[in-house]
Amino acid sequence: MNDIFEPTVVAFVCNWCTYAGADLTGTSRIKYAPNVRIVRFPCTGRIDYNLVLKAFEQGADGVIVSGCHPNDCHYTSGNFHARRRWIVFKQLMEYMGIDMRRVKFSWVSAAEGAKWADVVNTTVQEIRSLGPSAEFSEMKGEGIA
Amino acid sequence: MNDQSKIITHDNLLKFLDALRTSGKDLYAPQRKAQKTFFLPVDNVQSIVFDYVQTTESPKALLFPKVERLISYEYVDGQVQVMDHAESRKVNECILFGSRPCDAVALKTLADFFSRDVPDVFMQQRHDALTIISISCTKKDENCFCTSVGTSPGDTTGSDILLTPVEESRYYAEVLTEKGRALVDALPEYFEISGPVEKEKYVAKLENVFSSEEITRRLSKAFDDPMWNDASLRCLGCGTCAYVCPVCSCFDIQDEGNNKRGDRLRCWDSCGFALFTLHTSGHNPRPTQSERWRQRLMHKFSYMPEKYDLLGCVGCGRCSRACPVDMNMKEQLEEIVAEIKAI
Amino acid sequence: MQALHIKAKELLESGRVRVIIGYGEGSSGRVRPVFIRNVSEAEKLVWDNRCKQNLAVYLLKPEIKKIGMPAIVATPAAVMSIVQLISENQLKNGDLVALAIEDDSVTEISDDVSLETYVQSHPVIFPPSVKEEIRTIAEKSLQDRLKYWQDELSRCIKCYACRVACPLCYCERCITDVNQPQWVCVASHLQGNFEWHMNRAMHLAGRCIECGSCTLACPVGIPIGLITIEASRVVEKEFGQKPGLRCNAPSAMSTFKVEDVETFIK
Predict the structure, then answer these.
(1) Residue B196 has what pLDDT?
(2) Measured by CB atoms within 10 angstroms of the end CB, which terminus of chain B is less buried, N or C?
(3) What ipTM does the predicted assembly reach?
């Protein structure tokens, strides 16, 4: 029987909302796909787009970026800055030919444990159907003698 | 009659190159891309171009790649395995076609420079595997100054075979080294024996614009001259001149990896960059473009001749053609000799 | 051109400026940046349709700043760069005299208001080919777009001519020169080239005024401006902000509006 491809998904999440929400998912005993590796940031405003690029370069098949809902940011406006950044980054990457379906953005609050599980499960399912990430792995080694 | 002098027609030349290409060797030759001419791997000999004065980038990447793997490590079954690429790699036989005599001199200078003290194994391997088939220049442009730096449009130095275009789409072929002979002897059907050919009739004529000995002499006294400031005002400090130059050899060592695998890479660097000489302490001995421009000229025309008896320039003119702000090294050298201050 | 020479002499003689940044005859029929400091050299200045390079980049070069008050022969794109640099606090009102040339008459523009007025009445006409080129790329499939950029960027040698030619790339320590952490690979392999150009485009989003100097500077013929121009056009489309028009415009990427709209954050 063929092996089902298990994607590696990295999640960059903010401490105050999504990370707390993910805690709630756990304490509520809601099961969700184990493919995700969660990295905690103080705020989505801190998440540099280079981290998304690095995640793919290091072998991630998908990336989740998640934080507080607009107007709920613990630092008032970090997520607004992030939102602007992602709007530009997403379109620029698509223009360069990078498949941005592999990057999922969400607002998950500290109370939304069920939503977090849903975000992860949906993402893993979609990445599984997209297959292993190819753009960056194919580029690796190109141009090195 | 020199039995190493031959004639080859243009059509046979293309067939000869195709035969080399299909024999498993890597063939690099000038081809057009983005309205410029580059040395690129050849898939189809029909795409090789012949009507350029000089290519945009030099062929030095065949000896000194822009990124080269030196060492790699990988974690396998809990153990770190280290691979020294000089030991483990096999450099494929490579033919460089279409370099100019100045390029061949430059590649020889580069190989010489990297074989001093501790010989650079990486370059040596590539040099050993490389056969250079150059074409003499029948044309020149205002940026060329090879005759001022000790070479010429028909110079055989550094080439394994030198072709000079003569009448009727034919080339006079001088087979100069064992490597050149090996290629010709393997495919003799494309070559005819030649009588004596007066090469000087066919190659471009280039007047000397300065004497490089004079430059070296004047530069040895010029370190503190205020002219460098004005001369470098428009220089923006990119790496273009160093990267297109066939002799420039500065490099950076970069380690890229994670806790599973990684590489140590050698990549090109340029003394023109502002942070090239930045020390960890924060001190930068070449803090303005003036010192960096001075370094460029003095390294090529003063330090290298004095220390190594090698001139760091072959007059190919690529730096002047590619420079985004027209620094024009040839013009500046002429001014140094004429002792005119640059604007 | 004569009006330019007269103006140049007058500015230098009166001591109002110490250096005129302009174009002069270069080699092989090109023009090159020149820095006129003496009245006797003023006639070296040229002005014709070869003068395309954005000279505003020299306004922030320390060796030029040291000379003193500059005048600059400014194409409309250079004036836009100056306005953008003022809005980013890199230049201030009265730091320079811009010389705008039209039909052999020279207009001096030195204060914020006149710079803004000039920019708004002299919109830069970018070659229609740029819009066409971007559209052609955008219409390709995702995979073809990736192939296109891989093909172009594989030639990149990381000379940074694009960076040094751009008046808005003025960081004293570029992200590529930071090695703790090493965000952008130094090496010019394909991955490193992608990283560099993606970063440059993100840093120029909403700031690139489309002067095309980066494309002119690239020694290996990559249409590199097509990436930064696209980033700025996204900013204009999404947030309605265009660079180089107002001296106190908010910086598009370091501000936000609560009403910013997107559909992809769920």
Answers:
(1) 83
(2) N
(3) 0.93
